Sequence to fold (263 residues):
Amino acid sequence: MNTDKLVEVVAGVLYNPQGEFLLSSRPAGKAYAGYWEFAGGKVETGETYLTALQREFKEELGIDVIQATPWLTKIHKYEHAHVHLHFYRIGARQWQGQLCAREQQSWCWQQPGKLTVTPMLPANAPILAALSIPTRMRGQFNTGFHTVSAQEPQLKILPYHSGIAAAASIYAPANQLQYLAQQHPIDHIWAICSSREQWQQAQSAAAIIWPISSIDDIKLLLTLLQQEPSSVPVMVFQKKTGLTTPQPDWMNLGAHGIMHEQE
Fold:
């Protein structure tokens, strides 16, 4: 089998009203049978990513996906296939029906940061880490940011300085990423970006922070989310400025969450 051809695959992070997400096991007869994954599958000829996602969820779990939000992309090379994964988030109000195991697979609801099933499909480890990042944070650039809601994973990130502990989650300009990775685990480093070059440099970071202070910042981020979807969560930092232009619905356009500047 030629494993060099990139296979387009969609996967969905399906939520229930309690904020839990769904995992299902791969059925017998498939590669990695018994491993846990996010439901989805190969995009067939003529399908859009959304129609492929809707078909796969109907075939695998018997439910109807009404809407889905683009989230992250990943490229992963398995022994049996080289896949380009397109992950979508499906909110509790974006699907309907009764879950059923149409492929005799198992399924269960999980809480971010509290995985109870194993083994997990290798490509999905970074996705689980991303789900542990809250979608709403508040703070200041010079002191740090923290989770807003008690219902979301609790996280505090700090601006980098030389004396900060390696175990802390930190943020710094994207061009410092390589240097900081020599002192801190890369999955603890968030990259501040404001250009296409920095966006590309930051795809190995734990997350991207994109400050919004001008219309140009908005336009460029919209372009990047559409043309170069990120492989890491994107947090839009809405700074307190004189900008009067209404902000786009970032989380429906591919951003992971919003950071608000605290007075």
